[in-house]
Amino acid sequence: MAQNRWTLVTGASAGMGLELARLFAKDGHGLVLVARRKDRLDQLAAELSGQHGVPVKTLGLDLAAPGAVKDLVDFTVREGVDVHTLVNNAGFGLRGAFHELDAERQDEMVRLNVGAVTSLARAFLPGMIARREGGILNLASMAAFQSGPYMAVYYATKAYVLSFSEALHEEAKDHGVKVSAFCPGPVQTEFVAIAGLEGRPRFDTAPDAASMARAGYDAYVANKAIFIPGLFNKLGIFMERLVPRSVPRSAVKKFNASK
Question: Where do the structural domains in the chain lie, given as residue ranges?
Fold first, then answer.
């Protein structure tokens, strides 16, 4: 194992989190895997420790729950883990009119997508800066670049993650620490079903989680402040800058509102 290199991955039980955990294990990092479904984490831990000979610790935890971030930080202290890389992957979205979606679920989304990302960065970034190594990979989204009618809170949380990551990138780079925001478009993960996006255009033909995780991993290693995978996605973001904000806003409204 790369000496003193532990990677903490949130939302590691499936999708992008699982695939990113595999990549960091292959690179020799010890792992702290966090998600609600501990049975899946334990299965993944057995796979990765067996294949790569790295230590893997698991913690079943809902990071949207009050006090959960503190519980996670306390766990790393008890286990003697100095987090070298933090992967803020856990998050979810909901599709529907803001005034109709369940209020508590939307509050949970903010606590997970924004609150946990912020608190975990604050908990572990000082140690990275003191050691002058390591970094943070935040999972943002192409949604971060525009408003999202009928997914208003989700889009807003990802805009926060993007802005937050860019700022930390500038603050941390002079200390030898990396901070990257990975902004994929649609990916074939469980997020699609949870958000109510099954059968939507682009989601049925979306790339798989393994290939997208590789793209995000490589961008983090290269210390790219922002990375948008795919030429089509890059062109889409570029074109949005050339038209009034009402144009993409209206397009997203029609996409998210349609059956």
Answer: 6-257
